[in-house]
Amino acid sequence: MEPAQMTIDEANADDAEAVWRIRYSSEVNAFARTKEIPALSNHIQWFTKAYIGGGLNRCYVMRTAAEVIGYCRYDVDNDGSYVLSIALDPAYHGQGVGSRLLGETLAMMQKGAEIHAIVSRTNSGSQRLLSKYGFTERTRDDAWLHMTKAIPV
């Protein structure tokens, strides 16, 4: 499916299960900092509290006509910056879909916002994607790259 046939919008409560399915697929979970898989009911409760109802966190989903195929979350950190989490259904990896998802959602973020991403050092695809959109390395350790980007004012 061509990326043009996909839409991106804010997540709603009905998207919680699809986001859980994508986030905890074995291919995506392999690169995650937290590998423990929560019960779906716990995830739905967390998702609803975090993203539904007008708080500062943001979760955008990419849809085909039939299903949610990816998400991009921006979670407010203690210092007021956002922490990015992006994932796609593995069937859509390597097709430019993640690039469109990240590019369009960055454009929706508040001007002047600072966004951080913590990326596995073994996840070269995500490192390339973030670099393409202006994220730069802030620090690194044995397992993770800490990247950052400021949304222009």
UniProtKB/TrEMBL annotation:
Q: Which domain of life is it from?
A: Bacteria
All copies of the N-acetyltransferase domain together span: 6-152
**Which GO molecular function, any one, fits this protein according to its record?**
acyltransferase activity, transferring groups other than amino-acyl groups
List, alphabetically, the InterPro entries matched: Acyl_CoA_acyltransferase, GNAT_dom
Q: Which Pfam families match?
A: Acetyltransf_3
Protein name as it appears in the record: N-acetyltransferase domain-containing protein
| Species in which this protein is naturally found | Candidatus Magasanikbacteria bacterium CG10_big_fil_rev_8_21_14_0_10_47_10
